[in-house]
Design a protein that fits this description.
The chain has 342 residues and is mainly beta. The protein folds into two domains: 110 residues, Sandwich (Immunoglobulin-like), CATH 2.60.40; 208 residues, Galactose-binding domain-like (Jelly Rolls, Sandwich). It is 4% helix and 35% strand. The chain contains one helix and 21 strands. Strands 1, 2, 3, 5, 9, 12, 13 and 14 form an eight-stranded antiparallel β-sheet that branches. A hairpin with a 5-residue loop joins strand 16 and strand 17. The longest helix has 14 residues. It is elongated, with a radius of gyration of 23 Å.
């Protein structure tokens, strides 16, 4: 018995150190040439264009670029880079029913694998409009599509493929905002494409600028993809646009942790460690008796329902670790066991 406990302790602390793994960060800092004109997306390493004839050309902006493509003042808006010295700009759509598109296409250095969990982080902004800017439109249904092959765009026409992730509300912000997508990969993917998919007739396109505004223009910087260590099945992806105000997480000094729970859907004690408010620094991990991680949550409002992905686990004892930040701003670590009762 002591031998088994020793094995568990070794595995336990190895697994508890699992962290998200950054697969790629597209910060647009590696370039072949400083941009000298608009439409020079090809000067940036790790960027592609699905347009088959070059009519739809995203723009590369850099603090050392020439007058048309330098930062922070661009022909579309005033935009300081979020990270480093370069950003990408995309004319997502023009006036309603023109069905004009540009897309930002990013080849992935490693294929996203089916069954793995990932997080995509997309910082974006429309920038601060100038009196002569033609930008100023906002658009709903901005999409992110993962694909095994690079998508095909005919000129500036819309790509008709349906993206896996769609931000349904209208996106518009003068300062940098960060959109996030957390999901379980359903098929191997080698490309990530950001833009407006399909035709204009079911999209909200609003003029937030002036009489000259005729394009919804979005800037992107420091886009990141990371693989998550948890085993949750995100059948329904978690999407945040970055527009909504984030409610600050609370800090606590101690938490009562029950030693059993009964996930039988009777409305009582069905979920282990599910809070009704966010707690700062929350990191909950559940391990089986062999030291294998079966559940992880980084949000206090999502507890454990006694499953591993979609598999219902049998009644037995499980081990847990919990980390959070207390009111003295000190990390607190707790651990123990919980009995799953069926």
């Amino acid at each position: 018995m002591r031998f088994l406990i020793s094995i568990f302790i070794i595995i336990f602390f190895c697994l508890s150190g699992l962290k998200a793994q950054v697969i790629q960060k597209f910060d647009f800092e590696n370039y072949y040439h400083i941009p000298t004109a608009l439409g020079q997306w090809y000067n940036v390493q790790g960027v592609d264009n699905p347009s088959n004839n070059g009519m739809a050309d995203p723009d590369y902006f850099h603090v050392l670029g020439n007058v048309a493509c330098n930062l922070p003042e661009t022909p579309y808006a005033i935009v300081p880079p979020l990270n480093g010295q370069g950003v990408m700009g995309v004319s997502v759509v023009s006036t309603h029913m023109a069905n004009s598109r540009e897309y930002l296409c990013l080849p992935l250095p490693y294929s996203l694998q089916e069954g793995n969990n990932y997080k995509i982080t997309i910082p974006w902004t429309n920038g601060v409009k100038t009196p002569v800017s033609v930008a100023g439109l906002s658009v709903s249904e901005l999409g992110v599509m993962l694909s095994e092959e690079k998508p095909h765009q005919n000129g500036r026409s819309p790509i008709i493929n349906t993206p896996q992730f769609v931000f349904t509300e209208e996106l518009y912000a003068e300062g940098w905002r960060t959109a996030n997508i957390i999901f379980t990969c359903r098929e191997s993917s080698n490309f990530m494409t950001i833009g407006l998919f399909g035709y204009d007739d079911n999209k909200a396109i609003t003029n937030r600028g002036n009489a000259n505004s005729n394009v919804a223009y979005y800037f992107f910087d420091a886009i990141q993809i990371e693989r998550l260590a948890d085993t949750i099945d995100y059948t329904t992806p978690i999407l945040h646009t970055g527009i909504a105000e984030v409610i600050p997480a609370e800090k606590v000094d101690a938490l009562f942790v029950p030693n059993s729970f009964t996930p039988n859907n009777d409305g009582t004690n069905d979920v282990f460690l599910e809070m009704d408010h966010e707690i700062e620094g929350w990191d909950l991990k559940i391990f089986n008796r062999w030291g294998q991680l079966v559940f992880e949550s980084n949000t206090a409002v999502q507890g454990w329902t006694g499953t591993e992905i979609e598999k219902i686990l049998e009644a037995e004892a499980f081990f847990w670790t919990l980390s959070f930040i207390n009111t003295q701003n000190i990390p607190v670590h707790q651990q123990g066991s919980v009995h799953l009762i069926r």
